[in-house]
Amino acid sequence: MIQITQQQTIQHHPRLGIEVLRGCNLNCLTEIESRELKESLWKHGVVVVRQQQLTAEQLKEFAKQTFGDFMFGGPPKTLDPEISPDLQSQYVYILGNPKGPVADPAGKYAWQ
Does the structure show a pLDDT above 60 at 5? Predict the structure, then answer.
């Protein structure tokens, strides 16, 4: 088990996951950071890594490199032409409303 310092990890609530790798860049994780991320995800089910500047495509590639090939599929989802391609891909879901205040939020997963 990797020893994690208080500055790197914050657990807000045991059932809501854990914040990990404070100040890291997911584009260039060390092997130790990658292992820490995987162990935290396995243990807590949800991890938060703040202040990342990844496009949806970069996030998809990070996930493939870190966790391996995707094990889910299904029919291709339709991407919204009104939302930047940097924010959406076949395997990335938007949790929020990138269109701003509108009557029909994108994906209806979360509202402002």
Answer: no
